[in-house]
Amino acid sequence: KKTIKKKMVREVLTLNVGQCGIQLGQAVWEQYCAEHGITVKGDNPSTHDDGTFECFFEETGAGQYVPRNLMVDLEPNVIDDVKNSKYSNIFHPEFLLAGKEDAANNFARGHYTVGKEMIDKVNDRLRKLVDNCENVQGFIVNHSVGGGTGSGLGALMLERIAVDYRKKSKLGFEVYPSPTISTCVVEPYNALLTTHWLLDHTEVSVILDNEAIYEICQKWLDRKRPSYDNLNRLITKVISSMTASLRFEGELNVDLNEFQTNLVPFPRLHFMITSMAPIVTPAKMQTTRCDVQSITEGCFAAQNFFTKIADFDSEEDKYMAISVNYRGDVKAKEANATVQWLKQNKKVTFVDWVPTGFKVGMNEQPPAVLPKDDLAPSKNNIAMIGNNTAISRVFSERISKKYDLMYSQRAFVHWYVGEGMEEGEFAEAREDLGFLEKDYLDVLSEQATDEAEDED
After folding, report:
1. How does DSSP classify residue 52?
2. CA distance 274 to 217
3. Burial group, residue 123, by CB count within 10 angstroms (0-12, 13-18, 19+)
4. What are phi and psi of 324, to 5 degrees?
5. Fewer CB atoms inside 10 Å of the end CB: C or N, the chain?
6. Distance, CA of 158 to CA of 84 (rounded, Å)
7. Is the pTM of this model over 0.85?
C-alpha cells in the first residue's frame, strides 16, 4: 500500500438531515468513493491522487477511509437503511444519529419539541467531527424544506453552526416543493418557515426540485418512471462537480469560500439555480455533440435547470453571477471563448451592474459513472451554478401563494402552535419572504449608480 504524502487539507464536513437529505447523502458518498477508488470496505487500493481527497475522507488508524459525514434523522428507518446498505461499512456508526419519534412533516416538531431533544447530541457529534480536522473549510448541508426533519431540525442545526463556527461557510442543497407534484399537504408552511431561517444561516443555497429532475430523467434519460434514486444520482453529479476542485488537482481550482464570494452580491440573495450537461443515455451519446460550446449551451437552457422555473426568458430573467465548473478534457482558452460566446449571443443576460459575471473552474478528472447510472460517460462535463433573479418566482408562486391560501383560513396551524410555536412567527416569516421577493425586483430595476445620479 502506497503511503500518501501528507498535505495541508482543508476539510469539508457533510451533514445530511431528514430522509431526503440522507438518501441524497448516500448517493453522494457512493459517487465520491467511485471517483477516488475507495472500496465498499473503505480501503483505497489505488491512490491515484495525492491525498487531496482527505478533505472529505478521514483515515483511521487501521488505514480505512471514513467519510467526514453526519447523518441525522428523527426516526430510525432511514438510518437503518444506511446501516444495511452496500456501503454501510465505510460510515462510522457514531455519526449516524437516529431519534425515536418522527417530526411528522411538522416544522415545529423538528425545530422545537422533538428536534430540541436531539440537538445537543448532534452538536456533540459535530464537535467531534470538527476536532478530527486540521482546518475546517466549511459545511455542506443536504436536506429538504417541505418535510419536518429536514426543515425544522435542518434550520436548527444551521443556526447552531452559525453560532459555534461563525466564520465557516455553509453550503446548502435544498430540495424545495415542486410546482405541481406534492408529497405533503403542509409543504408551503414548512418551506416558508425554513426559507426564513435559510436567509440568515446559509451562505449559499442551491435550490433543487424533484419535478424538474423528473422531467430531465424522462426527457433525456428515457426513464418513464424515475425513482428518487435516479434523481439523487443526477443531483450527485452536480454536487460532485462543485467539490471536484477540492478533491483533485486542477488547472483552475475553486474552493467553498470562492463560491460564496463570487455568487452572492448581497447576503440575502444567495439562492442558486443549477444544471449540468451532457445528460444523455449511452445510446444517444454516439449522436450527441459534446464539444465545449454545445454542452455549455445545453447547461443554460431553462429545461435543463434542476429547478423548474415557469416561463423562463433568457433576456428578461437576468443573472447576477454564474459559476461554471468544467471537468475533463477542457482547456482554459476554450472555456473563456465559450463564455464570451454565451454573452454575445444573448444566451445569458446579466443585470446592468455586473460587467464580468462568470466564475470559471476547471478540473481534469471527469465525473465517475457508476454501474447503476443512467448517464453515459463523457470526456468533458460542465456544471453550472447561477444566481438568477427568476428564482424569486419559486418563492412567490410555490410558497407565498399557496401559503396565503392556507393561512387565510388558519388551516393546519394548530399543529404548529400545539408544538410550542407562536402564530406571530408565521407572519414574521411571511413578511421576510415578501421582502426577499422585493429585493429580487429591486436588483432588476436598479441602474448602475452613476447613471442614476446623472439623472438627478
Report:
1. G
2. 15
3. middle
4. -115, 130
5. C
6. 28
7. yes
Separation in Å, CA 12 to CA 69, 137, 214, 247: 9, 6, 29, 10
Q: Which of 308, 309, 21, 300 is nearest to 175 (CA)?
A: 21
> How, if at all, do strands 204-209 and 169-176 pair?
parallel
Q: How far apart are CA 369 and CA 76, in angstroms?
A: 31
Q: Please state, in angstroms and as integers, the Cα–Cα distance from residue 315 to each residue in 103, 182, 251, 429, following that order.
A: 43, 30, 32, 31
Mean pLDDT taken over the chain: 89
**Annotation marks residue 258 as catalytic:** yes
Contact 306/383 with Cβ under 8 angstroms?
no
Q: Which of 45-54, 55-64, 376-385 has the lowest mean pLDDT?
A: 45-54
Q: What is the pLDDT of residues 176-186, one digit of tens each?
A: 999 888 888 99
Catalytic-labelled residue, pool 215, 258, 334, 364 = 258
Residue 372 grid coordinates:
447503476
**Could you write out the DSSP letters of every residue in 407-440?**
HHTTTTHHHHHTTT--HHHHHHHHHHHHHHHHHH
